[in-house]
Design brief:
Order of helices and strands: EEHHHHEHEHEHHHEEHEHHEEHEHEE
Strand content: 5-15%
Strand order of the largest sheet: 6-7-8-9-10-11-12-13
Number of strands: 13
Oligomer: single chain
Largest sheet: 8 strands, mixed
Radius of gyration: 26 Å
Length: about 425
């Protein structure tokens, strides 16, 4: 999608000439269906995967327009930046979804405190949908384009900082430049100067300011202006350095439960869903889960012991079978409709447990209900002889016949057993 823009006299920025793709029918159809569902059920579940994905899709288009080619190698600074931007877009979209559905639900009650008739409710919902998905989305799209553009430049500036360590703040120079931004025009500071932590553009909605990179030999660092303008809280940070298009100061985030933001991460595009770490990959959603640090430790040990293709997986709700098939595979989803494995190792679902000697067998049984490959990290040291006897006994138990492999992590040693 590409949107044409023309100068906007009222704000000094740009406004779309052509409507956004979803401003035609996609959002309108979604909102009408949500209105029907909410009115019938009278529930307060402020989450719609379709609405999250549709909003995120628009804003990923904006990233593409501002950043350029999104097909970059995973181990490059550009990919690391894009991972952050895409993740931020999905969390922002989830926060926006929450506020929009909350407004829609609240609209069921009229000014008199009574339940509205459906037709009256439907009109109120259409107005809410237009506000969120037409008026505000246009500004959000423009903001995302500008922020993504400056993020791409920040990555490039960092790459070339040895040769060109100085940055110059530059405005467009026309009569629509905001007075507070005009005060910053021409300021030159080293790329590592704290000045850029606050004043690296954009510094407001529809900000058109830019930064130019210069060699130290040609650029004289300027004094900090006596009067530094106030920046709106949302923009009072180097968004590019943080990898953000919409920081947590945005009003959409106010009052949004953490689980709403976590659930949005389930829908990340495959190229940006996983983070490559030391010998393994992990889904971006894991940063919001309590067992992540423990599972990372186990994954690092397994990678160091020679295990290949280790992926730490997100926990997905049983009511989302499509996502479960995507991440867990068709066979696992069919055989374990309510279970969530910690990992896939070499294409096999695997479950991690940390325990002491007393509870080893109990933890193996619990893990057998989740996966066929079981990894147990011991909290206390055991002898080689004891571990061998213990695993031999596990193979003879009828309630864990599905188990194919058991791996015991004991101090600095890893013991691996295949079913005989």
């Amino acid at each position: 999608m590409r949107t044409l823009y023309e100068p906007c006299a009222c704000c000094g920025g740009y406004k779309p000439v052509a409507k956004l793709r979803a401003s035609g029918g996609d959002f309108d159809d979604l909102i009408r269906q949500l209105a029907d569902d909410i009115y019938k059920s009278k529930n307060d579940d402020y989450y719609s995967p379709d609405l999250v994905k549709e909003t995120a899709g628009e804003l990923i288009d904006a990233i593409s327009e501002g950043y350029g080619d999104l097909s970059v190698d995973w181990d490059t600074p550009d990919h690391l930046m894009l991972e952050k931007l895409v993740e931020n877009v999905f969390q922002f979209s989830a926060a926006k979804n929450y506020q929009q559905l909350q407004d829609i639900t609240n609209a069921m009650i009229g000014d008199d405190g009574k339940l509205r008739e459906f037709n009256e409710f439907k009109e109120a919902v259409e107005a809410i949908g237009y506000k969120f998905n037409h008026d505000w989305l246009e500004t959000e799209y423009n903001t995302a384009v500008g922020s993504a553009t400056m993020a791409a430049r920040w990555v490039e500036y960092k790459k070339e900082a040895d040769l060109f360590p100085m940055l110059r703040y530059v405005t467009v120079g026309d009569n629509r430049v905001r007075a507070e931004h005009r005060l910053l025009d021409g300021v030159v500071k080293h790329i590592n100067d704290d000045f850029w932590k606050t004043y690296y553009p954009p510094n407001g909605f529809n900000c058109r300011c830019d930064v130019e990179q210069e060699p130290e030999s040609d650029a004289q660092e300027s004094d900090t202006p006596v009067y530094l303008p106030q920046v709106p809280p949302m923009f009072k940070t180097n968004l590019a350095e943080s990898g953000l298009l919409f920081p947590k100061d945005h009003p959409y985030y106010e009052g949004v439960p953490k689980d709403v933001l976590r659930r949005a991460m389930q829908y990340l595009p495959e190229d940006y869903a996983y983070r490559t770490r030391d010998g393994y990959e992990e889904h971006a959603m894991l940063q919001h889960e309590p067992e992540t640090e423990e599972n990372r430790t186990i994954a690092e040990i397994l990678a160091g012991s020679g295990e290949k293709d280790i992926k730490l997986l997100p926990r997905l709700h049983e009511k989302e079978p499509e996502l479960r098939r995507k991440y867990y595979g068709e066979e696992y989803t069919e055989n374990h409709p309510t279970k969530c494995p910690d990992s896939f190792i070499g294409g096999e679902p695997a479950e991690f447990k940390e325990t002491n000697k007393k509870n080893m067998s109990k933890r193996i049984l619990e893990a057998a209900g989740q996966a066929d490959v079981i990894i147990v990290k011991m909290k206390e040291p055991l002898t080689d002889e004891y571990i061998g006897r213990f695993v031999k006994g596990q193979w003879g138990m009828d309630d864990r016949l599905n188990v194919k492999r058991i791996i015991i992590i004991n101090n600095d040693k890893t013991y691996k057993y295949n079913r005989p």
